[in-house]
């Protein structure tokens, strides 16, 4: 008999999540039936979506939603061998049972030198968000200028580097000077700290006086309201996330976007990366190849121990991560 540790959302978050909103519990797992597998989480992901989706989909007492890289401890399913690693979507759990239908094996030929946690970041859901968001939603073309916010994070850092790989100029912003230095290191042409500038309007104009062809928006709110006025004619905006609004208790007002949308004939499209998962293999293959070639750099903010899941989640929402926020069990 295996006992799993799980984190539940004890109380719905009000404003910014607090550690007291979470509770760690134990779950006794049943013995394996034929066709089933026992898995242990090795790395867990903490992601911004957990905040808005908890409000929309979860009730108090539910296990926190989320994905992990897990190792197969025991297998009674001939399609899976013990010792193999998979990506699963089983929430904040140390151990769990699966019948194999909801598991994705790590890509064949995963290099020994690469951390398997990249399957939750640069070579996983966030990397795919950058890939499909930039190439399919923004329809980025060589020679264009791309703007991305939350640029030092899991999605943004890949967006910027793919824009460079695709032959574009890239401007990014982040919330600390060390993040700005990181953006320069990974090839951003222009980078600024949105918390210390005096005018976003002036900063965006100075970084690209001719404006932006593509805007990959991870933040929404006031930033997006100002950035939309800096789009070039026929510019494209990928509405990926709105992290500046996830902890709001009172909805933000505005903006009124009709004038720049009409005058500049802009396109603005919201998207959810899973809509492109029929092409998941293509995206994973491309991202992994660029990582192996050294063209796509990665950084991970690793928090040790499952017990620190809430702290890692809250820290990521506060901006403590450079690159992907990961918990190592
Ligand atoms: N549409 C889709 O399918 C998907 C959407 N997303 C969205 O992409 C965005 C980025 O996700 P991800 O890369 O995983 O997360 P990150 O790794 O970028 O972590 C979140 C970052 O957001 C920044 N942030 C937090 N609060 C604010 C704020 N009020 N204003 C501006 N920036 C803020 C912080 O960086 P800083 O220090 O720079 O403030 C923080 O580090 C999120 O909005 C997420 O919901 C992610 C995956 C899929
Ligand atoms: C206004 C909210 C915007 C949120 C944007 C975002 O971050 C979306 C993330 C999804 C991503 O495209 C693919 C996912 O896996 C994220 C959603 C996860 C939903 C979990 C569903 C609950 C469960 O697992 O049971």
UniProtKB/TrEMBL annotation:
SUPFAM superfamilies: GroES-like (SSF50129), NAD(P)-binding Rossmann-fold domains (SSF51735). Signal peptide: none annotated. Residues 15-327 form the Enoyl reductase (ER) domain. InterPro entries: ADH-like_C (IPR013149), ADH_N_2 (IPR041694), ER (IPR020843), GroES-like_sf (IPR011032), MDR_fam (IPR045010), NAD(P)-bd_dom_sf (IPR036291), PTGR1 (IPR014190). Its EC number is 1.3.1.48, 1.3.1.74. GO terms for molecular function: 15-oxoprostaglandin 13-reductase [NAD(P)+] activity; 2-alkenal reductase (NADPH) activity. SMART domains: PKS_ER (SM00829). It comes from the Eukaryota. Keywords: Acetylation, Cytoplasm, Fatty acid metabolism, Hydroxylation, Lipid metabolism, NADP, Oxidoreductase, Phosphoprotein, Prostaglandin metabolism. It is found in: Cytoplasm. The keyword Cytoplasm applies. It catalyses: (5S,12S)-dihydroxy-(6E,10E,12E,14Z)-eicosatetraenoate + NADP(+) = 12-oxo-(5S)-hydroxy-(6E,8E,10E,14Z)-eicosatetraenoate + NADPH + H(+); 20-hydroxy-leukotriene B4 + NADP(+) = 12-oxo-20-hydroxy-leukotriene B4 + NADPH + H(+); pentan-2-one + NADP(+) = (E)-pent-3-en-2-one + NADPH + H(+); 4-hydroxynonanal + NADP(+) = (E)-4-hydroxynon-2-enal + NADPH + H(+). GO terms for cellular component: cytoplasm. The keyword Phosphoprotein applies. GO terms for biological process: prostaglandin metabolic process. Its main location: cytoplasm. Monomer or homodimer. Belongs to the NADP-dependent oxidoreductase L4BD family. This is Prostaglandin reductase 1. The lineage of its organism: Eukaryota, Metazoa, Chordata, Craniata, Vertebrata. The gene is PTGR1.
